[in-house]
């Protein structure tokens, strides 16, 4: 296994073990910059950073996540879809229509407080939607709810997922860094998607946002990024807890299967910011 269980909020990726496996089984595969979902995506990015000496200039630590599939052992960890971590003494919110909100994702900041320069109202931030389809584009389509990781979670909570049948996916943490000063150097490289090398692109806490378009003027400090989820094909451990590789089919054996991907627009990302009062705002960009 490439997951390393710890006493922290998240399992951690054992990238050294994963790298040994990929070096042995994927040596003929050309590496490229990647939107990070699988361990191989992160391995590819970090290997190219080392190979081309891109760890230069100011360093911005970030906790980036690769994903396991299924419900995690710890319901409080960072995850997308599935069963949310919700206190048993709180009612689940309703949408303006009166129907229950859908659960999109949650971020657990417990392992990342050393890289977040903000006083957060809680340890876990839940992202809820009013419906499955329109939340990306409407200003009021996404709501944010802070809860304490010390709360007793509701075990009987059964709510709809904003990513449909996909997942659920849980985050396996890896501490890395963003290197914005390496941006110019990547234009000279013969590397596909080299723009994904300086600032990590994927689901992350802290560091810098990997803007896809022109960026954003949202108020407050960058908090985290929710990236589209699409596993690396033909690589072992497309999910950190599943060794068998996925192919390019549109079924449960392929990366395009409904259960295996959660894509926002055209491979887009949601960016979250927090102000001094703990209020969260968001923006969205895609290709």
From TrEMBL:
Pfam families: DUF1963 (PF09234)
Family matches, as InterPro entries: DUF1963, YwqG-like_sf
Domain of life according to the entry: Bacteria
UniProt cross-references to PANTHER family, sorted A to Z: SLL5081 PROTEIN
The name this protein goes by in its record: DUF1963 domain-containing protein
Lineage of producing organism: Bacteria, Pseudomonadati, Planctomycetota, Planctomycetia, Pirellulales
């Amino acid at each position: 296994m490439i997951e390393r269980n710890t006493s922290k909020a998240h399992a951690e990726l054992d990238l050294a073990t994963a790298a040994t496996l990929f070096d042995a089984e994927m040596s003929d595969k050309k590496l490229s910059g990647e939107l990070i979902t699988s361990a191989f995506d992160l391995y590819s990015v970090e290997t190219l950073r080392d190979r081309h000496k891109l760890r230069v200039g100011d360093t911005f630590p970030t906790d980036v996540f690769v994903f396991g599939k299924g419900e995690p052992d710890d319901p409080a960890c960072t995850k997308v879809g599935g069963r949310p971590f919700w206190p048993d003494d709180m009612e689940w919110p309703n949408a303006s229509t009166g129907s229950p909100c859908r659960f999109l994702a949650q971020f657990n900041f417990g392992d990342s407080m050393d890289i977040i320069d903000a006083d957060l109202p809680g340890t876990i931030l839940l992202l809820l939607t009013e419906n499955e389809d329109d939340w990306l584009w409407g200003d009021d389509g996404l709501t944010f709810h802070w809860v304490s990781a010390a709360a007793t979670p509701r075990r009987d909570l059964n709510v709809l997922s904003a990513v449909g049948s996909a997942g659920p996916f849980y985050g396996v943490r890896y501490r890395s860094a963003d290197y914005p000063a390496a941006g110019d150097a990547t234009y000279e490289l013969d590397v596909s998607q080299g723009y994904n090398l300086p600032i990590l692109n994927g689901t992350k806490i802290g560091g810098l946002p990997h803007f896809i378009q022109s960026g954003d003027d949202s108020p407050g400090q960058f908090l985290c990024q929710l990236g589209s989820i699409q596993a690396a094909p033909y690589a072992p451990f497309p999910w950190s807890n599943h060794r068998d590789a996925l192919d390019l089919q549109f079924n449960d054996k392929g990366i395009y299967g409904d259960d295996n991907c959660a894509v926002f627009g055209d491979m887009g990302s949601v960016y979250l910011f927090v102000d001094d009062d703990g209020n969260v705002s968001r923006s969205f960009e895609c290709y």
